[in-house]
Predict the 3D structure of the following.
Amino acid sequence: MVHYPFRNAIELTFFSKYQFSWIRHTIITLLVVGLSLLCAIVLPNLGKVFDLVGSFGAYPVNFIIPVVTFIKV
């Protein structure tokens, strides 16, 4: 479920000028899956990953979203 939007974002960001290519599509897919596999093998504990995701996600949840909601109301 996460792979499709990530691959789509890469293709739209870097290759939007070009026509669709199955070779490029396959290479991007293999790179994304390979990097995901490498991260899963190298990281012995997902605690560090969860710490980073939580620290980057806490700021918008605590500061940005309430302000935007208040401005919208």
